[in-house]
Amino acid sequence: MLLEGKVAVVTGSGGGIGREIALAMAAAGAKIVINDVGASLGGEGFSASPAEQTKALIEQRGGQAVINTDSVAEWESAKRIVQCAVDSFGRIDIVVNNAGILRDQIFHRMTPEEWLSVIAVHLNGSFFVSRAAAEFYRKQESGSFVHMTSTSGLIGNFGQANYSAAKLGIAALSKSIALDMKRYNVRSNCIAPFAWSRMTSSIPAETPEQKARVERIARMGPEKNAPLAVFLASDAAKEVSGQIFAPRMHELFLFNQSRPIKSVHSENGWTPEKIAEIALPAFRSGFTPLDRSGDVFSWDPV
């Protein structure tokens, strides 16, 4: 019971990865705020049914949960999500920023609305909910954030400029929270999940290579991400903050973070011509290739 006595808000927990994390945290002893607007993958519509299904599962297993259907994408509604935890259970200890939508589109065809809507839910939503919880975390001098990033942002992917930018931004947000709130014993970490869910069901499967990739992903259920989320939210991870992890079937990965890898020096400074003549050849072997997530994680999950 790693989370005995703790209260967790799990956004986007009406299904998929969020539901499995909510179930696992409840099984570990936490009281859960199930936040979900019940929208489609693209963010349209509203339904309380997904959240109600998660609540029923938690209660069938002896846990406690309440439902909140506020959007993460607005500051005032994000504050209501966090206040729901305090009003219902007296405190808040854990925030899992999992809510998300997809509006995939090749970059040169992406509309401003497709860009803004994804940024609003993923990046703004992660900030708003975290910022609302930070007030309570500071006063009690404890708390944990678990944010969902993605290899689409950490590595790259086709047709996901909006999603990739948001997810890489979340990694930077998490690091900033970890630095700024360390003095209050608050931790912030990221998970880059691998799982077959609504968020991956839209991956194209037209070519033989794409079909093979989708088949690999389909083997990884959303529940594979829950143990890591429970660990990171618990006191067992009290020394872990500012890190990025990925669970992939039975594998766990720790991601590196951007650091200088090569340098060159010119005593008299640089001209464009000297950069082309000296710096480019020195740097070329260190260039990061234009990989996609599927190129880097190319082996079958076991």
From TrEMBL:
Q: Which residues form the Ketoreductase domain?
A: 6-202
One matching Pfam family, short form?
adh_short
The cross-references to InterPro entries, in alphabetical order and at most eight, read: KR_dom, NAD(P)-bd_dom_sf, Peroxisomal_Beta-Oxidation, Sc_DH/Rdtase_CS, SDR_fam
What SMART domains does this protein's entry cite? Answer: PKS_KR
Q: Which family does it belong to?
A: Belongs to the short-chain dehydrogenases/reductases (SDR) family.
Q: What is this protein called?
A: SDR family oxidoreductase
